[in-house]
Specification:
This protein is 0% helix and 49% strand. With 125 residues, it is mostly beta strands. The strands form two sheets. Strands 2, 4, 5, 6, 9, 10 and 11 form a seven-stranded mixed sheet that branches. The radius of gyration is 13 Å and the shape is globular.
């Protein structure tokens, strides 16, 4: 089993930056594809980004590419989501997720087995 805990959320002004972290308590962390999703009030949860177990491959939603950067430190069992040039429409609860196995560009919620509780990101205009 894997337990995930997000941190780093908060309130920032438009154009600012924020780094989210997702710490995993499970073992064999490098065997898990890690993803980030977000959900704004009144909207359905959407895919943000995903990274392969080794960290060699990343994939981003069109809405965040060129602004967000996903990385991982397997020695620390941690995934990082660096968010830059934030926009008000980025406001949402951000959750990290894990799926054991090989990379295949997992972008749907059902493709992940474990979820964190989420962290709130609010971008003011």
């Amino acid at each position: 089993q894997v337990q995930l805990v997000e941190s780093g959320g908060g309130l920032v002004q438009a154009g600012g930056s924020l780094r989210l972290s997702c710490a995993a308590s499970g073992r064999t962390f490098s065997s898990y594809v890690m993803g980030w999703f977000r959900q704004a009030p009144g909207k359905e949860r959407e895919f943000v980004a995903a990274i392969s177990g080794s960290g060699g491959t990343t994939y981003y939603a069109d809405s965040v590419k060129d602004r967000f950067t996903l990385s991982r430190d397997n020695a620390k069992n941690t995934v990082y989501l660096q968010m830059s040039r934030l926009k008000p429409e980025d406001t949402a609860i951000y959750s990290c997720a894990a799926r054991y196995g090989s990379w295949w560009y997992q972008t749907a919620r059902y493709e992940y087995d474990y979820w964190g509780q989420g962290t709130q990101v609010t971008v003011s205009s």
